[in-house]
Design goal:
Length: 927
């Protein structure tokens, strides 16, 4: 069927005239907002593209592409040309000009245009222009932009190849890189906001909305019917609808812009959200404008691009029934206009913009009190700014989640660059994600500055373990702080100071006041803290950094902030003095002077995060946190780390100890990541080790507990490393310094009637036992005999070579608590042979069966008298009068476990045997 639209020549003429009237009205409104010099830039702009003349801005040479099709400058434009370069004459009209049209777009001519609004210009050119000609034309545009800036006018010119544009291949036309995220949405904005300056006009003006989906057929009908002159019109493309592929990208883009211009971004974001809610029957906003104009309404106020957007968004929110969101959108619109209705000059009061805005605010029911509050936005307290920020971010992220969910539902139709998604998503996460300890930006473009004359630090609780600080703005009386004055609360004073620095609350003249004045922090320490915190700089991350995972680039440790580690003694002026200056074990009482650590992490995404560690092992907990980044550090090295100690007492000793420990531990794990690091803190022992699932901190309250930890089975050889101040005068330092992989080592220390035995297995696990020295037999010999027998049996069972066994004696050095180690020769095999062969076999139920010279003694036969029966058998085989203990020559376990398991079983059974031996000796002794 032949396509015959219901359009007459009179309709086309009327629509054309209506758009021309609207265009003139918008252009006049745009000029009204400009200074005289800016007006001259706007008036002469088309002629700068139309001409190449040495006396005009942008001139390169006479062959640069120039000349605008169908351009007949008006009196105002010619007058501006003569003011700029008197005497220049226009060439005769030609028919082959390569420049097709000049347009303004954006907020110009609307109620949202302010003195600071940019002029975004679309310069459409012939698509056949060679690349060299385009490059020269681009250079000319840059020169014109530079000249305009000198006149106080921010101008951006975008070259537009309309064939590429219709295919979605274009550079940004808004001054920013829209990447792959927008095309039709940009065209939608162009159509509802464009101001025609020169050249051909958009054919879209003459296409009724009902024919948008068949725009080409409609236009062809007009051409065939000769109702139009095609050389007068340009095709930017039709907008039958908004493709869903643009919602996610455009939403992310507006969120990204919202980091610095939240109010403007919010309006466009909510428009995208509105479009998503209409899917699949989406009505572009530019259709509203066209309907108004085609109905004969050319009033610039009714057709204002921003008011149209506000109406559409408000209608959507009204349907959802959330008045708070409507109020937020209205505030965003009000701030976008940059008009302050309660602070207008006489000239501003008489302007069309103020009249329009006053009509809107009256319709909203805003009173003078509300307007004054908004107009004094620059004087808002930071708490008020933070409250507004939360409302803005909540709305923007809510819109983002809705659009993201929408995109997942229609993922097969969404085509957005993964790079754009990742980059913008990471930027939003870095800026908006809130979690404990993270320093957030409470002022994403809401006010120009948050600098304060006075900030108060209020200590609510002086208990060092449960203290809480408040960051307070404004003054108060009678200790009555109003809730709106409390900007932030935290147990970490460093978090509050970093928050103030991050958000620009400090100025060179900001006064800091402490409350109460007699707390554990004095004014001198506050100034020291401020000096160090204010040296920190917040840097925005690059796109390259945001493409990668966030990583720490700087660590700052603040030790004992507002804490006195010897508070009770300090108050009486009795701080301990000692030649033992280890801050983790100070003086003879081994006091731990490091009670709190505030760790500030600055990462590659520009995030600041404060972790607070308190208690006896605060520094060790901090190190455990830092060691999470060991895989990164092994490839790139550790980030920069600085420590600050501001304790009232022993600050020097603390600073030195912290720096030593940080250096030693971090370098150790770079070089030996599998070797646990032992640190002594006061009367505790802490073992830092890096396991497959990350760093672990094991704590031992006493030496016995530490030995239990060191006895743990290891999957592979483990070389324990001791901190420089750990376990002074303990044999463990010497033992582990001589640890060797694949070797059994037995160490002994003889002190009076007590023998201390230490056994290291082939993987570095330690077994410790204390035994009573015998007068008839050296306690080490039975252990050596047992190990030799066990190794021989395993050689046969496992078909392997023998295990090397080393014997060493530990002795204290003369006039010292330090130990020295001496290697000992192993006894000859004959000396290791027992007169009585005493073995034990333990089954899966952990029930023992003993063999004495091959005679079997089982629990099934003897029950609770098992050990008494074995003891009696041993006594029969001994020389009368022998009173030395029983020693097992071998133990077989059901799971054939590690050597330490066998030694433990040996000592456990021997203890029961020797108890039975004593009982049997007493009962059989002559009266």
């Amino acid at each position: 069927m032949k396509f015959v639209p219901d359009v007459t020549a009179g309709d086309l003429k009327r629509w054309h005239q209506s758009f021309d009237l609207l265009n003139r009205s918008r252009l006049q409104r745009a000029r009204d907002r400009l200074t005289s010099r800016q007006q001259q830039v706007l008036d002469v702009l088309p002629l700068l593209f139309h001409l190449n003349h040495p006396r005009l801005p942008g001139f390169i040479h006479h062959k640069v592409t120039a000349g605008i099709a169908q351009f007949n400058p008006d009196h105002t434009q010619l007058q501006a040309l003569q003011q700029l370069a008197r005497g220049i004459k226009l060439p005769r009209m030609q028919h082959d000009y390569a420049l097709l049209g000049v347009y303004l777009m954006g907020s110009v001519g609307s109620v949202a245009q302010s003195h600071g609004s940019d002029l975004d210009v679309w310069l459409c050119h012939d698509e056949s222009l060679a690349s060299e000609a385009l490059s020269e034309l681009q250079n000319k545009c840059h020169l014109i932009e530079t000249w305009a800036k000198q006149q106080g006018c921010e101008l951006h010119v975008f070259l537009m190849n309309l064939s590429d544009f219709r295919r979605g291949q274009h550079r940004s036309a808004e001054g920013d890189d829209c990447g792959s995220t927008q095309h039709i949405l940009l065209l939608d904005e162009f159509y509802r906001s464009a101001v025609w300056l020169a050249g051909l006009k958009p054919r879209w003006w003459l296409v009724p909305n009902e024919y948008e989906r068949k725009a080409d057929d409609y236009w062809q009908f007009l051409l065939n019917d000769m109702q139009i002159h095609p050389e007068q019109w340009l095709d930017f493309g039709a907008i039958p609808s908004i493709p869903i592929s643009e919602f996610v990208g455009a939403g992310l883009w507006q969120l990204n812009k919202g980091l610095h211009a939240p109010y403007k971004a919010l309006l466009k974001l909510l428009l995208n959200r509105h479009y998503a809610s209409q899917y699949p029957n989406i009505r572009p906003l530019c259709w509203d404008l066209k309907d108004l104009v085609h109905d004969g309404n050319s009033d610039a106020g009714d057709c204002d691009a921003y008011i149209l957007m506000l109406r559409r968004i408000s209608d959507q929110l009204a349907q959802e029934g959330n008045q708070q969101r409507i109020e937020l959108v209205r505030r965003a619109f009000y701030f976008k206009t940059q008009l302050r209705l309660t602070q207008l000059s006489r000239q501003q009061s008489d302007s069309w913009r103020s009249h329009t805005l006053r009509q809107l605010t009256d319709a909203w029911g805003w009173n003078r009190f509300q307007l004054e509050d908004l107009d004094q936005r620059e004087q808002w307290w930071p708490t008020r700014v933070a409250q507004e920020r939360h409302a803005l971010i909540s709305e923007m992220l809510s819109s983002y989640r809705l659009i993201a969910n929408f995109s997942q539902k229609h993922s097969h139709r969404i085509r957005v660059s993964r790079r754009d998604m990742r980059l913008l998503g990471n930027r939003l996460y870095a800026e908006f994600d809130a979690r404990p300890g993270k320093i957030i930006n409470i002022n994403p473009g809401i006010v120009s500055s948050l600098g304060q004359e006075t900030l108060h630090l209020n200590l609510c609780n002086e208990d060092q373990e449960q203290q809480r600080w408040q960051l307070v703005v404004g003054d108060w009386k009678d200790d009555q702080i109003r809730p709106e004055q409390i900007l932030k609360q935290s147990p970490s004073l460093i978090e509050l100071l970093c928050f103030a620095q991050f958000n620009g609350l400090f100025t060179p003249h900001t006064r800091i006041r402490l409350h109460p004045s007699d707390n554990s922090l004095n004014q001198y320490q506050v100034q020291e803290l401020l000096q160090r915190v204010r040296a920190l700089e917040h840097q925005s991350p690059s796109s390259t950094e945001l493409q990668q995972a966030a990583r720490p680039i700087n660590w700052q440790l603040f030790v004992n902030v507002a804490v006195d580690p010897q508070q009770q003694l300090s108050r009486r002026g009795m701080q301990k003095v000692s030649n033992r200056d280890d801050a983790l074990g100070y003086s003879s009482a081994h006091d731990n002077l490091i009670l709190t650590v505030d760790l500030l992490t600055i990462n590659s995404w520009g995030e600041w995060h404060v972790n607070r560690f308190t208690g006896s092992v605060a520094l060790l907990d901090c190190l455990q946190h830092v060691l999470q980044w060991l895989p990164f550090a092994r490839e790139h090295g550790w980030p920069e780390m600085l420590s600050h100690s501001l304790s009232q007492t022993h600050a020097g000793a603390i600073a030195i100890r912290v720096e030593q420990l940080l250096h030693d531990v971090l370098q150790h794990f770079l070089q030996q990541p599998r070797s646990p690091y032992l640190i002594e803190v006061a009367e505790q022992y802490c073992l830092l080790e890096y396991q497959s699932d990350g760093p672990k901190l094991l704590k031992a309250d006493n030496a016995r507990h530490l030995l239990h930890i060191l006895q743990r089975p290891r999957e592979q050889y483990t070389a324990y490393v001791f901190d420089r101040a750990a376990l002074p005068g303990s044999p463990l330092r010497n033992i582990f310094e001589h640890s060797r992989s694949g070797v059994w080592q037995l160490f002994y220390w003889h002190q009076k009637q007590t023998m201390y035995l230490y056994f290291l297995d082939e993987r570095g696990a330690l077994l410790h036992r204390t035994v009573t020295a015998s007068t008839q037999q050296h306690p080490v010999l039975p252990v050596l005999r047992f190990l030799r027998q066990l190794d021989q049996r395993w050689q046969l069972e496992q078909q392997r070579g023998g295990r090397k066994l080393l014997l060493s004696e530990l002795k204290r050095q003369a006039n010292s608590y330090e130990f020295e180690l001496k290697r000992k020769r192993l006894p000859e095999v004959a000396e290791q042979t027992a007169n009585i062969d005493l073995r034990a076999v333990i089954d899966e139920q952990q029930q023992p069966t003993l063999y004495c010279n091959n005679e079997e003694f089982s629990i099934w036969q003897y029950g609770d008298d098992l050990y008494l029966a074995v003891a009696a058998a041993v006594l029969k085989l001994r020389t009368p009068g022998s009173d030395y203990p029983c020693y097992l020559t071998d133990v077989e376990l059901a799971d054939n476990g590690r050597v330490i398991d066998h030694l433990e079983a040996k000592f456990r059974i021997e203890q029961q045997l020797n108890q039975a031996l004593q009982i049997t000796t007493l009962t059989t002794a002559p009266a």
